[in-house]
Amino acid sequence: MIQNPILPGFHPDPSICRVGDDFYLVTSSFSFFPGVPIFHSRDLVHWEQLGYVLDRKEQLPCGYEMLSGGIFAPTIRYNNGTYYMITTNMSMGCKNFIVTAKDPKGPWSDMHVIEGADGIDPSLFFDDDGKAYYTGTTRVDEADGSCQAIWGSQIDLDEMKLVGERRILWKGALAHAYAPEGPHIYKKDGWYYLMIAEGGTEHMHSVTISRCDTVLGAYEGYLGNPILTHRHLGKMYPICNVGHADLVELPDGSWYMVMLASRLMDGYHKILGRETFIAPVTWEDGWPVVCPGEGKVSWTCPQPECLAPWQPETGLPLETREDFDGGRLGLEWNEIGNPGDEPFYKIEDSCLKLKLLKNELVPWELDGLSANVFERIPMFGSGGTKVSFLGRRQQHMCFEAQAELVFDPEKEECAGMTVLQNDANQLRLEIRRGEEGQLKASAISTKTVVREGKQYFEETVLGSVSAACHGPVKLRMDGTYTKYSFYVSVKSGEWLSVALDADGSFMGSETSGGFIGAYIGLYAYCDTQDKDKYAAFDSFSYTDKSEVFV
Ligand code: 6LW
């Protein structure tokens, strides 16, 4: 059996390709660095993370301010000895670019920006005659206004240039389809199939398909569209937002689909963001049937019979226990925005040391701006300053995170642990120097509220405790569905509660907007200036407690 989600936690817009017995899968990463995580499997059941496609600063210009900027949906394809990853960097002004590699583990090339390729969600298709094609999204003018559509063009991958005429291929299955996007072309039995997502990436998401006998012709929609959606299942069905998919053919001619979907917690809350799921596909009368006999994505699906059992050496970075004894961080750790020239963290003396930078974890510069993420992204370019944050995805409904902090803060300095969603939707356990010189731990929530189309940040202190000591101090966060509890300990074994069962439901994408899922992170800053001083974390652990905290 394959267990869904195959990539738990924030892993949206999956794209998959098969090369012989090996499957490779990439997902979107927005403003997190390194970008575009790449996964490998040989049986579609077990997955390992190979690394990241964009792991050099030159490949990922983006700022720390806009978590939902940066890298949108990637596509991975293989042709004739070369792997191609094509995607959009929104923080570069919506530029589409390709990187290539001979080995999916890397190194991947520098960016090749495709001039004249507008829109998001680029994909590549290699035809049998050796020609390659680009597809993406664009806007077209219609008699009754402009609408989004899927366009295509031949592309010369030696020159990394679009060639020939550019054509509108399809506008989606519905008469006025909302957000036709995420296109991929496949060829089967002489037909070109164009599969896309429609309905927007939240509850109304869906997968639709069309076909044509020429690659850049006018595609005709399938009468049975959508071929997959969960929007008709209502908001009680525990897997929702199903859409943005990619297909892969197995060696025996059977097919599977990977797609994004979100798991719900405590009602209709999507704190984990959009995750990667998988489902079997059959073909009937020349069209795909997804999850035959069931019509919806389930928690398990049959394992492909033609693939030999396989166990990866490393697997996915799901749980973390770090004493920071090694020289480098595990693959699960991400920072926000381009790393720049000056490292803001170091691993030294068996500690992770975060520099006290002036940028706060709450990007106050976004307070009062448009609530529309697409209007905000262009306001912040491709980077500059940093925020001192390192985090990993929240991948489980219930978890416990702990860190040991060795830090003697001066008045305007702080460090802590956070669960962070889009921009200013976050809960923090923050350590500062109190008025009387004691150490003070506070649990703080920052939430975005929208008024008249603008977003405003509201910050609330949920609880505080003080201790007459200079550290070290242990921090603990327990997440139980939408509730988060915060504790500190200055004596071994004794936990003091700072805030219990704080409401985290506002962090779900259904209210917080944007495209991210929750991260559990460590951070440090100084209110007044960048300082050449570090907050040291001696250990960090993130543990799945789904079986325990129920
Ligand atoms: C992505 C678009 C989408 O580019 O959301 O779900 C956007 N689909 O295809 C960001 O992930």
Task: Provide keyphrases for this structure.
550 residues; mainly beta; Jelly Rolls; 2 domains; eight-stranded antiparallel sheet; six-stranded antiparallel sheet; 2 helices; 49% strand; globular
Describe the structure.
By secondary structure, the chain is an all-beta fold. The chain has 2 domains: 2-301, Tachylectin-2, Chain A (5 Propeller); 320-544, Jelly Rolls, CATH 2.60.120.200. It contains 2 helices and 39 strands. The strands form 9 sheets. Strands 25, 27, 28, 30, 35, 36, 37 and 39 form an 8-stranded antiparallel beta sheet that branches. A 6-stranded antiparallel beta sheet has the order 29-38-31-32-33-34, with no helix packed on it. Strands 15, 16, 17, 18 and 19 form a 5-stranded antiparallel beta sheet that branches. The longest helix is centred in the C-terminal third of the chain and has 4 residues, at 373-376. The model has no long low-confidence stretch (mean pLDDT 95). Residues 12-13, 28, 72-73, 120-121, 181-182, 197, 201, 243-244, 260, 515 line the site of (Z)-L-Arabinonhydroximo-1,4-lactone.
Could you give the topology of this structure?
Layout: E1 2-3, E2 15-19, E3 22-26, E4 32-33, E5 35-41, E6 48-54, E7 75-79, E8 82-89, E9 95-101, E10 112-113, E11 123-126, E12 132-142, E13 145-156, E14 161-170, E15 181-188, E16 191-198, E17 206-212, E18 220-221, E19 228-229, E20 239-249, E21 255-263, E22 275-284, E23 287-290, E24 300-301, E25 320-322, E26 335-336, E27 345-348, E28 351-355, H1 373-376, E29 389-393, E30 398-406, E31 413-420, E32 426-433, E33 439-451, E34 454-467, E35 473-480, E36 483-491, E37 494-503, H2 509-512, E38 519-526, E39 534-544
Antiparallel strand pairs: 1-24, 2-3, 3-5, 4-26, 5-6, 7-8, 8-9, 9-10, 11-12, 12-13, 13-14, 15-16, 16-17, 17-18, 17-19, 20-21, 21-22, 22-23, 25-39, 27-28, 28-39, 29-38, 30-35, 30-39, 31-32, 31-38, 32-33, 33-34, 35-36, 36-37
The structure holds (Z)-L-Arabinonhydroximo-1,4-lactone.
(Z)-L-Arabinonhydroximo-1,4-lactone binds at residues 12-13, 28, 72-73, 120-121, 181-182, 197, 201, 243-244, 260, 515.
